[in-house]
Amino acid sequence: AIRFSSAEAAAVSQGEPQVPGGVAPAKGKTDSETDSGKKTFNEILAERQEQAQRTVLINCPPNFNAKAFLKYLSRHGNVQNHFFYKSKAMYAVIEFSERESITSLQEVITIPELKDEYPVPFKSRVLTLMLKKQSDLVSEHTPVQCHRQTSIPVEKLVKKLCDADSVSDQLYLLTKECQLTEENIKLRFLACSLIQDIASTYFPDCIVKPFGSSVNTFGKLGCDLDMFLELNKIGKNTIRKKTSPFNIIYQMKKAPSERIAAQRILNVIGEFLDNFGPGCEGVQKILNARCPLVRFSHQPSGLQCDLTLNNRIALKSSELLYVYGCLDSRVRALAFSIRYWAWTHGLTSSIPGAWITNFSLTMMVLFFLQQRQPPIVPTLDQLKKLADAEDKEIIEGFDCTFVSNLNKITPTSNTETLDVLLRDFFEFYGNFAFNKNSLNIRKGKEQNKPEASALHIQNPFEESLNISKNVNAAQLQRFVSLARDGAWILQQVEKHPSDSSKPWGLAALLQASDTGNVSKGFKRLSMLNSDRVKDLLNSLKM
Ligand code: GTP
Ligand code: MG
Predict the structure, then answer these.
(1) From the CA of 361, which ligand is nearest?
(2) What is the pLDDT of residues 321-367, one digit of tens each?
(3) Whose CA is closest to atom 10 on ligand 1?
(4) Using 50, 70 and 90 to split pLDDT, how confident is the model at 143?
(5) Contact status, residue 121 vs residue 113, Cβ threshold 8 Å
(6) How many angstroms separate the alpha carbon of residue 225 from the centre of ligand 2?
(7) Whose Cα sits closest to atom 24 in ligand 1?
């Protein structure tokens, strides 16, 4: 806990300014928005990881004097960025310019005194601010501004969409309203950095990296945080002189397989999170999954986290989606809206099961965009041709090479509007020969299905694998009939109707099952529920 009174803050403000610049405004540069177009995925990741390491998370009492507190904190160093948000309580994210400021702050932080319990003395960067005097509370006239960390409710969104001018504008509006904010992305990197501190107690050089929707530009506010613990680089010393007469190797405990080693490591880290991790609740160790993981809720950030090990191919897949998402504003708006549409209809779910994953769905959007004339996005083979020597990357024997420099990719000359693209997406998949064909984004072509799964989407890197092997025939059928309904609904509107009080365009799509526009909507809704219950039961059995 940090104990603080406004008198101390006043003392700080009256004395010599200890750090030039003092408290920086909360709205610093919105780095991802302004610069990221030119930066590579890895540069952005590295920059955000570094920012996160000089950040602390502080639980604050309501109605406290934020201005005075920020001044007090600047005694320990320049606060480069800060913002407030509410999860269960109010929190402040404080980003110092220098990491040393946290060391300086730690000198005044004390261990809590509890009456009936005993604190586990693991010191992290998750802190609590305690007020020394009640007078440090401020009047209600200057409330702290909190940044929203959750999506707006669907009904509210539908109302907003009705006021847009075209379906195309609706897609952009939906993306703007529901995408991850700068603050939310910072919070995600901070959560990874806090877990990294924990894992570092066992593996001092480890890195915890986010992947999936937190970084692929398709994430919606409230989505889970996928993260992985990178240990592979540890100990791989590249400077091994051939001329040296000796080799020295580490003595290490051995496991029968890499999988078993991963299970043991995640088991121990899961125990640590459960017993000592501040704010880590509901820890589940799902070690028998195809990709063993630890799932937990990180209460201070309000994020549901999945921690895996050495998942470098997954990070590479996220980078691939990132590259595609940055190529053309239509890509992100279309994929984001389709993902949202699928979510509102229960086609996707955060519970593992026979439903389509967001990863597969995004691949379907990309494949569709590759089929346009001229194509809106290049094939993966074309991205590979543009790669330079530094982009070469072989992970676990799979060639994951593709261009990282976005400036090297020529923009498409295709000028189709999103109105057309959304409607044609639904038509395309409403009539796709899923029984015969597989989607291949590496070649940008459909191919004969090599196996009997209902939906076959070739894994972009591990080419013999199907990323949608989990999808069963019933779930695919639901997708197809909802896609047909979507095409039908969109054929009804050419532009903003004169009476926009009734949901139209994308707004109607999000409500399709309840409007009565759609044949058998009700029947499908009950099928949806029974299917999901069945699938859930099956996945529990497994
Ligand atoms: P949400 O978590 O649903 O919001 O979306 P997401 O974009 O994070 O997708 P998801 O959680 O389904 O997948 C996260 C990441 O895991 C993806 O970006 C991929 O990198 C990876 N991934 C997901 N499914 C597969 C799969 O079947 N095979 C492989 N190799 N990687 C996968
Ligand atoms: Mg995810």
Answers:
(1) 1
(2) 999 999 999 999 999 999 999 999 999 998 889 999 999 999 999 99
(3) 359
(4) confident
(5) no
(6) 6
(7) 359
227 lines ligand 1 (CB under 6 A): no
Distance 99 CA to ligand 1 centre (A): 33
Q: Which residue has the tokens 């890195």?
A: 207
Question: Would you say the CB of residue 507 lies under 6 angstroms from ligand 1?
Answer: no
Ligand 1 close to Cβ of residue 357 (< 6 A): yes
Cα gap 344→153, rounded to integer Å: 11
Q: Which two tokens stand for residue 521?
A: 């909507």
Give the position, in ligand 1's atom list, of the atom nearest the Cα of 317.
20
Q: Which ligand lies nearest to the CA atom of residue 228 in the structure?
A: 1
- Ligand 2 centre to CA of 40 (Å) is 21
Q: What is the pLDDT of residues 161-189, one digit of tens each?
A: 999 999 999 999 999 999 999 999 999 99
- Cα gap 119→117, rounded to integer Å: 7
Supply φ then ψ for residue 104, to 5 degrees: -65, -45
Residue type, 66: A
Tokens in use for 194? 């806090």
Question: Looking at the DSSP assignment, which residues form a beta bridge with residue 384?
Answer: none
Length of the chain: 542
Which ligand is the nearest neighbour of the Cα of 213? 1
**CA-proximal residue: ligand 1, atom 11 (nearest):** 212
The complex's ipTM works out to: 0.95
Tell me the C-alpha distance between 375 and 326, whole Å: 16
Cis peptide leading into 17, omega within 30 of 0?
A: no
Amino acid at 57: L
State the chain's mean pLDDT as an integer: 87
What six digits make up the tokens of 153? 């409710």
Distance of CA 123 from the midpoint of ligand 2 (Å): 29
Long-range contact list for 439-443, CB < 8 A, 24+ apart?
439/363, 439/364, 439/367, 440/367, 441/363, 441/366, 441/367, 441/370, 441/379, 441/380, 442/379, 442/380, 442/381, 443/379, 443/380, 443/381
- Among left, alpha and beta (phi > 0; psi -120 to 50; other), residue 19 is beta
Residue 223 beta carbon below 6 angstroms from any ligand 1 atom: yes
Q: For residue 308, which ligand has an atom nearest its CA?
A: 1
Tokens of 249: 């190797």
